[in-house]
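Example S7 (C-alpha cells).
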C-alpha cells in the first residue's frame, strides 16, 4: 500500500484538491469590493475583517492534511448583520465575500493591518490591484516552470552522481527559485542595481547554479573533495553548503549585480553581515550622497539586502531580533530588507510546535510593524506576486518586509537522514505527493501553456548540460576573483613581518588636530569640554608633546580622512567614548544637534575629496552590530571600520561572529577584512566583568606558530599597545598596507589619561611606524633581570622598579604585538642583555589567562630561553570582585616580579 493510500478519505480528497490550482486571482474584482465598501458600512467592516483575519484561514500550508478549520467570528456574515443573498452594487453579498476569500484566504495570507494607516491603506490597495490583474503572462509562467524543473533536475543529478554527499537540496522549497527570479526581474524597476544576499544552506546550490550563473562543475569539484580556488592560494576553504559568488546578471530589465555571501553553519549569523555589506555598497555607489544623509540615501536605495532564513532559526536565534531592531536606525538602515523565510515547518527533527511559542514564525517582525506575506510554496505564481508586492512596499516606504513561504523538506535534515524516525506522519504526507516543479508543470500542461515535449526538452537539455559539466571535473581550473574591482591592488599577506611608513607630516597633524575640535559657529558645547577637550588638545598639538590616547586617535583618523579614506567607528557610546575620552561627536547644549568636526576638514577642491567619518552610537547589541560592521568592512579596502566594545569583557556576546567571521573569514572564504576591534582591557578593581577582554581566547584563535617564525599572513593581528603613538601607527597601518587583516586590540582604560602614557608629534613623523617590541626607554644593558610584559602593566612595573631603586639591574621590555609573534625582533632585543640571568613574564591576568600560555612555548622553542612567571594565580573568573583582595593581588604580583 502506498503512503497516499494510507491517508484517510478527507485527507486524500484534500490532496487531490491541492493539485488543482489555488488561483489567487479567483475572479477577484477590486472595483467591486471598493464600490461595495463605499455603498454599505457593514460591507466595509467585513472587507476590513478579511484584510485583518483572512490569513487565519488561508490555504497557505502545502502539507496540511486538511484546510484550516479555525473559527474567526469577524469573518461571519451575521457578525456584520449581513445575509448571503443581500444585494449591494448589483452583486449578492456572498459573491463579494467570495471575492475577499479569493484574495485573502487562498495561497496568500497577509498580515498588514497592524501597520500605521498610510502603510496599511497602500498595502491593501496595491495588493488588491495586483490580484485583480490576474496571472502572469504565459511566457513568464513558462520561464518559472523552466527554472523550477531545472532545479529539480540538478537535485536529481547530484543524487545520482554523489549519492553519499550531503547537499541540502532545495527539494520541496523550489518556489524559492520563483522568488529570486521575480526579485531579479522586478528589483531593477524599483531603482535597485545591487543585491546582497545572506542565506543558509538549504537550496543554496540550486540557487547558485540556477540563477547566479555559478558553473556546476565547481560544485561537482567541491563534492569530490577538490579545492574551490587555484593552487597557491592560502586558506582552509569551507564546506560545500557555504559556497558563494558575486556576479553581474544578464537578461533582466536593468543592470544588476548580485552577491551571495558565504555563510557559516551558525544559522542566521550571515543576516546582519549582509545588511552591513549592503550599507557599505551604497557608500561605494555614491560616496558624496552617502555622506550627505545620516540615513545613507534619503529615499531611493539602490542596494538591496535580501535575507533568507530557515523557520526554526528565524524564530529562535537572538541575532534576528538584534538585526531587526537595528533596521530603522539612521546609521544602520538600508532602506528596508526583503526577508524570505523558507518555512519547511521543521528544524532538523523538531516540529514548529516545539520550536516556537508564537503562532507564526514571522511574529518577531511585528516589533517594527513590518508587513508579513504568508504564501503557499506549492504556488510559484503566488510567490512571484508576493515578491513583487514586497519590493514595491520596500521602494515606497524604505522598510523591511517578510515573505513566509510555507513549504516542505523532501528528505531529512540532509539527504542521508531518515526523518521518519521522528516525524512519521509529516513524511507520510510528503512522500505521498508529487514535487512542486512537477505539479506546476502539469498545471501549465493542463491549461495549454506548456506542452509535454517542451517540458521534456527542458529536462533533457539540462541533464545533458550537467553531464558535460561533469566531464570537466578533472580539467577545470576554478577562477580566483577576490582581488578585482574595488579590491584591485590588494594582495595576500606575505609570510614575513613587514614594516610600513605610517608617519605623517607635523603640519598635517596640526591641521587635522585643530579641525578635530573646531566648534561650528552658533554651536554651544559643554564648558567642561571647551576647557578640557578643545583647549587642552589645541595646546598639546601646538606644543607637539603630551599627546594622549584620544588625540592620537583623532590624528590617525583625521589624517586618513585627509588622504581620502573613509572611516566608520561603531559601538555603544563611541561618540563620547565609554570613558568620556573621545568626543568625536560634539553636542549643542541648546539644541542637542550633533556635529562631527572631522567631517569638516575644509580641504581645497584641488586636493580632492576628504573621506567621510561615520561615528555610530550603536544599540545595546554586540553580535548583530559586530556582524554588521564586519559586513561593512568586506565592501572596500578603502574604508577603515572600527568596532569598539563598551568594555572588552562584553565581546563574548558576539563570540559567534568573532569565531566564524572575523578571525576565520579569510581562511575559509578568501575574503579580506581590515576591521579593527577595540576591547578596553585592564585590571582596575572593577570586578569579573569589567576587567578582561580575554586575551587568552584571542591568542588561542590565532594561527601563530609555536615552533616557527610568524609572518603577516597570520589570520589576524592581536596587539596590546602602551603609547598613543603606537596606537596612531596601528590605525594608519590598517589602510596603508597592500593587504587587509583584522586587528584585535586590548585597548586601554587607565592609560587614556595616564601622565606617563603620552607621545609627541615627532613619534608620529614620516619614517616612523608601529614597532612590535618597545625597548626599555633607558639602556640597561648590564641588567641581570629582564622583565617582559604587554600592555598597561608596564607602567606599574616601571613605577615599582623606581620605588625599589632597581633601575640598574632590571630592564623592562614591552611586547606591543603578540600576533604575529615578533620572534626575530625579540631575539635581537634580548641579545643586548648579555648579563641577564633571569627572564620573567609579568602580567596582570591570572596564570590560566592572559598571554602567559602563548609566550611561554615560543620563548622556549624560538628563542631558546627559559621564562619564569610573575602574575596572579589561577582563577575561575577573570578578576576578583573584592576591592581589598584586588589591591593585595596588585602588590603581590609586583613583589613577585622583583623578588630576589
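Recovered sequence:
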Amino acid at each position: 500500500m502506498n503512503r497516499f493510500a494510507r491517508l484517510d478519505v478527507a485527507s486524500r480528497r484534500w490532496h487531490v484538491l491541492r493539485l488543482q490550482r489555488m488561483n489567487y486571482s479567483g475572479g477577484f474584482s477590486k472595483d467591486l469590493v471598493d464600490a461595495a465598501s463605499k455603498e454599505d458600512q457593514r460591507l466595509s467592516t467585513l472587507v476590513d475583517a478579511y484584510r485583518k483575519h483572512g490569513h487565519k484561514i488561508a490555504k497557505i500550508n502545502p502539507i496540511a492534511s486538511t484546510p484550516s478549520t479555525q473559527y474567526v467570528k469577524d469573518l461571519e456574515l451575521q457578525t456584520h448583520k449581513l445575509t448571503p443573498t443581500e444585494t449591494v452594487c448589483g452583486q449578492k453579498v456572498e459573491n463579494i465575500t467570495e471575492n475577499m476569500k479569493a484574495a485573502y484566504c487562498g495561497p496568500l495570507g497577509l498580515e498588514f493591518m497592524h501597520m500605521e494607516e498610510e502603510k496599511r491603506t497602500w498595502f491593501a490597495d496595491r495588493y488588491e490591484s495586483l490580484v485583480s490583474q490576474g496571472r502572469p503572462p504565459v511566457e513568464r509562467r513558462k520561464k518559472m516552470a523552466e527554472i523550477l524543473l531545472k532545479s529539480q533536475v540538478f537535485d536529481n543529478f547530484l543524487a545520482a552522481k554523489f549519492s553519499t554527499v550531503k547537499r541540502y537540496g532545495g527539494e520541496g522549497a523550489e518556489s524559492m527559485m520563483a522568488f529570486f527570479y521575480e526579485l531579479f526581474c522586478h528589483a531593477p524597476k524599483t531603482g535597485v542595481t545591487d543585491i546582497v544576499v545572506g542565506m543558509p544552506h538549504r537550496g543554496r546550490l540550486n540557487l547558485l547554479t540556477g540563477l547566479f550563473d555559478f558553473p556546476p562543475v565547481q560544485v561537482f569539484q567541491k563534492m569530490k573533495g577538490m579545492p574551490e580556488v587555484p593552487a597557491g592560494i592560502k586558506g582552509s576553504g569551507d564546506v560545500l553548503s557555504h559556497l558563494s559568488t558575486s556576479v553581474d546578471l544578464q537578461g533582466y530589465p536593468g543592470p544588476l549585480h548580485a552577491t551571495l555571501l558565504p555563510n557559516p553553519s551558525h544559522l542566521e549569523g550571515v543576516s546582519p553581515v549582509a545588511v552591513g555589506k549592503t550599507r557599505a555598497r551604497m557608500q561605494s555607489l555614491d560616496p558624496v550622497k552617502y555622506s550627505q544623509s545620516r540615513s545613507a540615501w534619503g529615499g531611493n536605495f539602490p542596494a538591496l539586502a535580501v535575507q533568507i532564513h530557515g523557520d526554526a532559526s528565524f524564530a529562535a536565534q537572538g541575532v534576528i531580533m538584534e538585526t531587526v531592531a537595528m533596521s530603522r536606525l539612521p546609521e544602520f538602515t538600508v532602506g528596508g530588507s526583503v526577508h524570505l523565510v523558507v518555512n519547511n515547518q521543521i528544524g532538523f527533527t523538531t516540529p514548529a510546535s516545539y520550536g516556537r511559542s508564537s503562532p507564526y514564525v514571522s511574529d518577531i517582525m511585528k516589533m517594527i510593524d513590518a508587513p508579513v506575506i504568508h504564501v503557499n510554496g506549492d504556488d510559484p505564481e503566488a510567490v512571484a506576486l508576493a515578491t513583487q508586492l514586497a519590493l514595491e512596499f520596500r521602494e515606497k516606504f524604505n522598510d523591511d518586509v517578510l515573505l513566509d513561504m510555507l513549504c516542505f523538506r523532501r528528505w531529512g535534515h540532509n539527504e542521508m537522514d531518515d526523518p521518519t524516525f521522528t516525524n512519521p506522519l509529516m513524511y507520510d504526507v510528503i512522500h505521498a505527493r508529487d514535487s512542486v516543479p512537477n505539479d506546476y508543470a502539469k498545471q501549465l500542461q493542463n491549461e495549454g501553456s506548456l506542452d509535454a515535449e517542451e517540458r521534456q526538452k527542458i529536462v533533457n537539455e539540462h541533464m545533458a548540460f550537467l553531464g558535460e559539466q561533469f566531464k570537466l571535473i578533472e580539467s577545470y581550473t576554478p577562477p580566483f576573483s577576490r582581488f578585482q574591482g574595488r579590491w584591485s591592488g590588494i594582495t595576500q599577506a606575505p609570510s614575513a613581518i613587514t614594516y610600513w611608513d605610517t608617519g605623517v607630516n607635523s603640519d598635517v597633524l596640526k591641521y587635522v588636530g585643530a579641525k578635530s575640535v573646531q566648534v561650528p559657529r552658533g554651536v554651544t558645547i559643554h564648558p567642561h569640554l571647551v576647557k578640557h577637550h578643545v583647549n587642552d588638545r589645541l595646546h598639546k598639538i601646538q606644543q607637539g608633546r603630551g599627546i594622549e590616547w584620544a588625540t592620537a586617535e583623532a590624528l590617525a583618523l583625521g589624517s586618513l580622512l585627509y588622504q581620502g579614506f573613509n572611516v566608520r567607528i561603531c559601538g555603544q557610546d563611541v561618540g563620547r567614548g565609554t570613558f568620556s575620552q573621545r568626543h568625536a561627536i560634539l553636542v549643542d547644549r541648546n539644541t542637542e544637534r550633533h556635529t562631527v568636526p572631522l567631517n569638516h576638514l575644509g580641504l581645497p577642491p584641488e586636493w580632492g575629496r576628504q573621506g567621510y567619518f561615520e561615528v555610530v552610537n550603536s544599540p545595546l547589541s554586540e553580535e548583530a552590530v559586530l556582524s554588521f560592521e564586519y559586513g561593512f568592512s568586506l565592501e572596500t579596502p578603502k574604508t577603515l571600520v572600527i568596532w569598539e566594545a563598551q568594555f572588552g569583557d562584553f565581546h563574548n556576546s558576539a563570540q559567534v561572529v568573532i569565531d566564524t567571521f572575523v578571525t576565520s573569514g579569510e581562511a575559509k572564504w578568501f575574503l579580506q577584512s581590515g576591521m579593527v576591534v577595540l576591547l578596553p582591557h585592564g585590571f582596575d578593581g572593577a570586578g569579573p566583568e569589567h576587567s578582561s577582554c580575554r586575551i587568552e581566547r584571542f591568542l588561542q584563535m590565532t594561527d601563530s606558530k609555536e615552533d616557527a617564525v610568524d609572518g603577516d599572513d597570520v589570520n589576524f593581528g592581536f596587539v596590546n599597545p602602551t603609547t598613543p603613538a603606537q596606537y596612531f601607527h596601528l590605525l594608519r597601518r590598517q589602510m596603508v598596507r597592500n593587504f587587509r587583516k583584522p586587528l584585535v586590540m586590548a585597548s586601554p582604560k587607565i592609560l587614556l589619561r595616564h601622565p606617563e602614557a603620552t607621545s609627541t608629534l615627532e613619534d608620529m613623523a614620516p619614517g616612523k611606524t608601529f614597532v612590535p617590541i618597545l625597548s626599555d626607554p633607558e639602556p640597561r644593558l648590564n641588567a641581570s633581570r629582564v622583565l617582559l610584559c604587554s600592555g598597561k602593566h608596564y607602567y606599574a612595573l616601571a613605577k615599582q622598579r623606581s620605588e625599589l631603586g632597581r633601575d640598574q639591574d632590571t630592564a623592562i621590555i614591552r611586547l606591543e604585538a603578540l600576533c604575529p609573534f615578533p620572534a626575530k625582533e625579540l631575539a635581537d632585543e634580548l641579545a643586548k642583555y648579555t648579563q641577564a640571568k633571569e627572564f620573567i613574564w609579568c602580567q596582570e591576568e591570572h596564570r590560566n589567562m592572559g598571554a602567559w600560555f602563548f609566550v611561554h612555548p615560543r620563548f622556549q622553542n624560538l628563542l631558546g630561553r627559559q621564562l619564569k612567571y610573575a602574575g596572579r594565580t589561577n582563577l575561575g573568573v577573570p578578576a576578583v570582585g573584592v576591592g581589598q583582595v584586588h589591591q593585595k593581588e596588585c602588590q603581590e604580583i609586583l613583589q613577585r616580579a622583583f623578588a630576589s
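Notes on this example. The two ends are 88 Å apart (CA to CA).
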